[in-house]
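Key idea: predict the complex, not the pieces.
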Amino acid sequence: MMLEKTTRLTYLFDFYQSLLTPKQKSYMSLYYLDDFSLGEIAEEYDVSRQAVYDNIKRTEAMLEQYEEKLLLFQKFQERQKLMTKLREFSPNIENKAMFDSLLNELEKLD
Amino acid sequence: MMLEKTTRLTYLFDFYQSLLTPKQKSYMSLYYLDDFSLGEIAEEYDVSRQAVYDNIKRTEAMLEQYEEKLLLFQKFQERQKLMTKLREFSPNIENKAMFDSLLNELEKLD
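Result:
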């Protein structure tokens, strides 16, 4: 699997997993986070490899549709860039501790 | 209609409208943004007042479910509070124009 695609889908899964069914969540989590193969997931759930593959492909398409509509990943990336630039102000700020803690709290919301 | 409920649903509609059907979007937009009455929407679409009411109630419930899962409105409110505190640093910052413009770009992402 291409690294870039894996990274993107791991992020999309992170943003939209609350909108998936429990089965979709389990398969995606094993495949993308725990690095199980399709065959291993199939064995674990006693279903065919093809069934796991189809489910994961459908879920990936759903995640891309949610992203097209809500843009959470895209906005996250844009926000990260702006946060990096804001952090560059930190060394010159008098109340640096307070400033840094506000930025940390902002990032935690992402 | 209670003002607080209207404000909340207007925000939820803003955040999640891309996940609604065209009909749901039209009814909600007329009701919450253009201040049409249920009767006026019913007349406009040549359906019963009850049908409009049921559709809007179902849509409101959907919006609350999306918020329960994705928390976009809640995170927006928390982010707004942090942004207000960050803005207080602005007067004492040397490159104030740059700082303000970064904050503005951040807010535009919400």
